[in-house]
Amino acid sequence: MNAPAGGTRPASTGSLREWNADVYHRVSDPQRAWGAEVLSRLPLAGTELVLDVGCGTGRLTFELLQRLPRGRAIGVDLSANMIATAGRHLLPAFASHIDFVRADAASLPFAGCADAIFSTATFHWVLDHDRLFSNLYAALKPGARLVAQCGGAGNLHRLHDRCDRLMLEPRFASYFHGWQEPWEFADAATTARRLARAGFVDIRTSVEAAPILQPTRDAFVEFVTNVICRPHLARLPDAPLRDAFMDAIAALAADDTPPFQLDYWRLNIEAKRTDAGSAKC
Q1: pLDDT of residue 49 exceeding 80
Q2: What is the reported pLDDT for 252?
Q3: What crossing angle do the helices spanning 29-40 and 59-66 adopt, rounded to 10°?
Q4: Predicted TM-score (pTM) of this structure
Q5: Phi first, then psi: what are they for 53, rounded to 5°?
Q6: How far apart are CA 52 and CA 20, in angstroms?
Q7: Which of 217, 275, 268, 267 has its CA nearest to residue 247?
Q8: Closest residue by Cα to residue 124 from 271, 235, 270, 268
Q9: Which of 135, 174, 175, 265 is deepest in the core (most CB within 10 A)?
Q10: H-run or E-run covering 213
Q11: Phi then psi for 265, rounded to 5 degrees?
Q12: Which residue blocks in the chain are alpha helix, DSSP H?
């Protein structure tokens, strides 16, 4: 939903659930590369049931399934477009090893089922991390592990600061009344405390720099439009305003050294559910 003239009504949360999944599948090489490293930290025997929370278009779910020849994965995402695209890519090869569930990461419909939870580039879209971690804990079997990565403290600070200043300009300001950031970029210490409150043990958290460089202006604009600035652009009612917003962002990025670099920071998460309790399904 776009903001009406005068900008008194914010875009609905539901409008941000859907992505241009085909574009994301094509441009998400950075997310796939980060996620492959995270997946390498998840010990698997090949027989487990693993929840891929925020599976997106399934690029990393494919790599996960290759490590589960006698196991199964459940791809979870809030976006119907993402799940549909993941299904097209994964079901022909892995139909008997993959299921999909459309659900909020903080409201998973599982209890004591999963041998592991794997997630990348998702948790920062959940504002209530205490609720998120409690729900993930409940979905795991006793002794099972959570291995994840998401945006962390400082993530995209330069770009978001530029967006904040643009939103105050007269040509855009009326559309951003009531703006609230839809991200939670937490630091390592805060995250460790939240995991502990949820009941996790063997907790390891860290934040690392992971800058990426877009090769051209067009590549930068396509990536930022479809991956980062979706919440901002959803507030603008027409293509000329959206184009003007992105032109301003791209012009600033062109003067950076190096040009078109995105200052990503990644929050790494590893933790285990306590051995107490029993599996429920």
Answers
A1: yes
A2: 98
A3: 30
A4: 0.91
A5: -90, 115
A6: 20
A7: 217
A8: 268
A9: 175
A10: strand 212-213
A11: -130, 135
A12: 21-27, 29-40, 59-66, 80-94, 129-139, 157-167, 170-173, 188-198, 217-223, 230-233, 239-254
